[in-house]
UniProtKB/TrEMBL annotation:
Protein name: Apocarotenoid-15,15'-oxygenase
PANTHER family reported in the protein's UniProt record: BETA-CAROTENE DIOXYGENASE, CAROTENOID 9,10(9',10')-CLEAVAGE DIOXYGENASE 1
UniProt record, GO biological process: carotene catabolic process
Keywords of the record: Iron, Metal-binding, Oxidoreductase
Pfam entry (one): RPE65
């Protein structure tokens, strides 16, 4: 029987970080840069070729007014391009309509989903239900288009070389203005019988929630689209795919819109976890002529999935689970976060039996972790390793200071840590080109904020053995605010 220590016991242990160091990354980067990275420790692999794109909030204040939460910040895309053992850095803000409007006005014009309010109190915010598309969550290259994504609205297209904003992307009119397009598309690698596809979804929540599934071919054309109605409010950030199915975890939450409508809270602050309700897992066939199925699971909250695959009569799904929703306290600034009181995200495996419509789950790895990333060639297939951003300490919640590699079958792990003064972002796995060997034959790229020098580094790790240490550390000339998701393409 597994036992865990209480939050109080964990909080008494020495911490491998200080809150002051962690806060150093939580500040705006208002400049846009373009320069070769010349300050390098180690050697950049000469056969690492392509561009790492990464998105996240770049502005944490608007004309001096601090945001209530970084997720309300305007998106800033970074590009780190590799060729012949050298690297080049570029960053640019996604110039959405809202970003440009606030720039012209010289002041904050929009509320934020995560609690940021316009000046003037609740009277200035009441009944203003406009959504500011911050385009800050992910960035992906597909169909020769670079897309900045935010799940509650349309994508923005960027020039893949200069990062200049080219405008809204509608996929030839399939999306209308403000049509949602989720920030976690999955690239189905295909096989000898199927070409690769980009699979994504959209959520329109309400008393009856609509899930729309999109599939795009290699040219970026929407070749399949189908809607599914599910009862109840659904907050779904990510999903998982297999060759036959899309899997959506309907977290057991309720939404009371009144404080949001009346101008007292952001929309995300009106979500409440319901611990007496199951998590409902919707299994939607990618063939739109087939019926969806729903399976109940133990109550938990999931932001991100690592992978899923079919195995006999079961579907296996590996996900980062929280015992409850990590709610946002409107009375606290996000920099006042108490990590010791928060539930950690942990890697769990779900077994979904399609014949009996039952599920069970078990814990794969208990260290607090998030941002799972696997070899892209194994999406939707059986796999043997996942890379995650994790806490340095083995128990309790904490800032992400380490990259871990976990075998989901047996829980074996490797760890590379930037503690005590380093804080990591999402690990992005880049397979060697062409792939010559094992699933982990490649590199892990991540951004690390170094509080000692108040700057960020691009760190390259060996995918086979994280514990060898950094192959190379590319020192940037500045910091990058704590970010969200990204991707790598060898096409740019």
């Amino acid at each position: 029987m597994q036992t865990t220590r209480s939050h109080q016991e964990i909080s008494l242990q020495p911490k491998p970080y200080t809150i002051e160091d962690w806060r150093g990354e939580n500040r705006s980067l208002k400049q846009e840069f373009a320069y070769p990275i010349e300050d390098v420790e180690g050697e950049i692999p000469t056969n690492l070729k392509g561009t790492l794109y990464r998105n996240g909030p770049g502005l944490l204040d608007i004309f001096g007014r601090r945001l209530h939460h970084p997720f309300d910040g305007d998106g800033m895309v970074c590009a780190i391009s590799f060729s012949n053992g050298r690297a080049y850095f570029r960053n640019s803000f996604v110039r959405t309509e809202a970003y440009c409007a606030e720039g012209l006005a010289g002041r904050m014009l929009y509320r934020g989903v995560f609690g940021t309010q316009k000046p003037g109190g609740w009277l200035a915010n009441a009944f203003d239900l406009r959504r500011k598309n911050v385009a800050n969550t992910n960035v992906i290259y597909w169909g020769e288009k670079l897309l900045a994504l935010w799940e509650a609205s349309h994508p923005y297209r960027l020039d893949p070389k200069t990062l200049h904003t080219l405008g809204r992307e509608t996929f030839n009119g399939v999306l209308h203005k403000n049509s949602p397009f989720a920030a976690h598309p999955k690239i189905d690698p295909g096989d000898e019988n199927r070409e690769p596809r980009l699979v994504n979804f959209a959520i329109k929540p309400g008393p009856l929630t609509t899930i729309t599934v999109y599939e795009l071919d290699l040219k970026g054309k929407v070749v399949q689209q189908h809607d599914h109605k599910i009862p109840g409010f659904a907050f779904i950030h990510d999903f998982a795919i297999t060759p036959q199915y899309c899997l959506f975890f309907q977290n057991p939450v309720s939404f009371n819109p009144l404080p949001y409508i009346l101008g007292f809270r952001g929309a995300a602050e009106c979500i409440k976890f319901e611990c007496d309700r199951p998590t409902k897992i919707w299994i939607i066939p990618r063939n739109p002529t087939q019926e969806a199925q729903v399976i109940d699971a133990d109550p938990c909250f999931v932001f991100h999935h690592a992978n899923a695959f079919e195995q006999g009569n079961e579907i296996i799904v590996d996900s980062i689970c929280y015992e409850t929703f990590p709610a946002i306290d409107h009375n606290l600034n996000y920099e006042e976060i108490d990590f010791d009181s928060r539930p950690p995200g942990q890697l769990w495996r779900f077994h979904l039996n399609l014949q009996t419509s039952t599920s069970h789950r078990h814990l794969i790895h208990q260290r607090a972790n998030e941002f799972p990333f696997i070899n892209p060639a194994f999406i939707g297939k059986p796999y043997s390793c996942v890379y995650l951003a994790a806490a340095h300490q083995p128990e309790g919640d904490a800032p992400q200071q380490a990259i871990i590699k976990v075998d989901p079958e047996c829980g074996e792990k490797q760890i590379w840590s930037a503690a005590p003064r380093g804080f990591v972002g999402e690990p992005v796995f880049v397979p060697r080109t062409p792939i010559k060997g094992s699933e982990d034959d490649g590199w892990v790229l991540t951004l690390v904020y170094d509080a000692t020098y108040s700057r960020s580094d691009v760190v390259i790790l060996d995918g086979k053995n994280l514990e060898k240490g950094a192959i190379a550390r590319l020192h940037l000339k500045h910091h990058i605010p704590y970010g969200l998701h990204g991707s790598f393409t060898s096409d740019v």
